[in-house]
Amino acid sequence: MGKVTGFLEIDRQEQKYQPASDRIRHYREFVLPLPQAEVERQAMRCMDCGIPFCHGPTGCPVHNQIPDWNDLIQAGDWQEASRNLHSTNNFPEFTGRICPAPCEEACTLNLENVPVAIKTIEQAIADKAWEAGWVVPEASPHRTGKRVAVVGSGPAGMAAAQQLARAGHEVHVFEREPKAGGLLRYGIPDFKMEKHHIDRRVVQMQAEGVHFHYGVDIGRNAKLQTLINDHDAVLLATGAERPREAGLPGSDLKGVQFAMPYLVQQNRRLGGEPVREEPVLAYGKHVVVIGGGDTASDCVGTAFRQGAIRVTQLDIRPMPPAREDKLRIWPYWPTKFRTSSSQAEGAEREFSAATLGIIGEKGRVTHVQCARVDESRRPISGTEFLIRADLVMIAIGFAGPLLDTYVAEMGDGLKLDKRTNVAANTDDYRTSVDKLFAAGDGRRGQSLVVWAIREGRQAARAIDEALMGASTLPR
Question: Which residue from 132, 133, 166 is spatially nearest to 148, judged by alpha carbons?
Fold first, then answer.
């Protein structure tokens, strides 16, 4: 490294946020980027640590070569850093914004709770690359004559499609929605990632030869078997969209709904797409969000921007410790107390809180009935309490792909695993159906965007190898 003592001399700095009182008044991104000179200083903090856990299996799923591009940044060679970063990650501007940064938890400096600001640096590289015009189409100079269909245009589908097109294949992406992006566009709020980041990647991919087909819902208004018959290979990258059932009494009351349709509706509204369902808005309401994950947090931030009076988030898990035991956990992802940007906007958080049921009057929700739980997450008698609620969001995760689509069409021919995900391994990503592959959340279950990108890239290599006998695509 160019500054081997940088970690001793330079304090950790990362991007700051607009004040909560300002940012809840709009839906735009609210991160305040560091100046370029400060980003370069932060890159100097990367140690010559010998074994860089940040890009190993415990750190970065796509194996970003983090020490390498940190060294390039501190030397001022941003363009080469961009080339390096893009060699392992098709969409670093996505992950630089929404990845929870397991790389930072695996950083050697995290043993002292001051890891390198890897996520901040990654976003800065990606944004600089676009600003400087370094991100250009990379069309293949040769064509293989093979046709590949990709079902779904989320992060796994987009990554796979781009890699396959660059290998020279004719790639067709079939997307149910009017625009590409999947969860990135319709699930993640604009205040975390504005959608023009997706749009310009689509333009790049189209210039590389990827064909996008919108409004095609495979298994409903189009047949998966037809795709298999018409293409040399088909990749399923549809994500895990089926919400877990809470099984709560009163969940049929008006004002109670799953989290994702709420987020999708708001993203359609901001994107200028028609909202055909009854509007669900938090203005002037007491909102309760059931669940402690990222989707729940996105509901919290959206509710505040819509004008909620009060937002309460329920988490059945106990409040975690402020710090993890480094010697026992590092470099793995720790369970510790975290506050998301949305939670910091004023959410009231209840831990060790089980939802017993939802109470209403005249068919509409009025309260959520809760109780404290013991170490086994069983309700403790005598600890029941009520929370006022005009709107309740259920955000307790996703169980797998929708079953009334291609899964129903293929019947027993398409094997599912015991969690009802499409069964395929990570060696060749093949399903039980000939010529059919699967990757992303629809195969592994709900996970991070960075894992979807990794699986899309690996599945692309597996398909290329199956079609051509060998592949030069990276794994």
Answer: 166
Q: How far is CA 159 from the centre of its chain?
A: 13
**Pairwise CA distance, residues 173 & 156, whole Å:** 12
Q: How far apart are CA 62 and CA 261, in angstroms?
A: 30
pLDDT for 221-271, tens place per residue? Answer: 999 999 999 999 999 999 999 999 889 999 999 999 999 999 999 999 999
CB neighbours of residue 16 within 10 Å: 11
Task: State the DSSP code for 369.
Answer: E
Q: Characterize the bridge pairing of strands 16-17 and 31-32.
A: antiparallel
Q: Where are the alpha helices (DSSP H) in 253-368?
A: 259-270, 294-306, 326-329
Given a cut of 90, is residue 2 above it in pLDDT?
no
pLDDT of 1 > 90? The answer is no
pTM > 0.85: yes or no: yes
SS3 sequence of 382-417: CCCEEEECCEEEECCCEEECCCCCHHHHHHHHCCEC
Contact of 446 with 293, CB cutoff 8 Å: no
Query: Between β-strands 391-394 and 256-258, what pairing exists: parallel, antiparallel or unpaired?
Result: parallel
- Give the count of beta carbons closer than 10 Å to the beta carbon of residue 220: 14
Q: How far apart are CA 77 and CA 261, in angstroms?
A: 44
What pLDDT score does 56 carry?
80
- Phi then psi dihedrals of residue 191, to 5 deg: -70, -15
pLDDT of residue 130: 98
* Distance, CA of 123 to CA of 129 (rounded, Å): 10
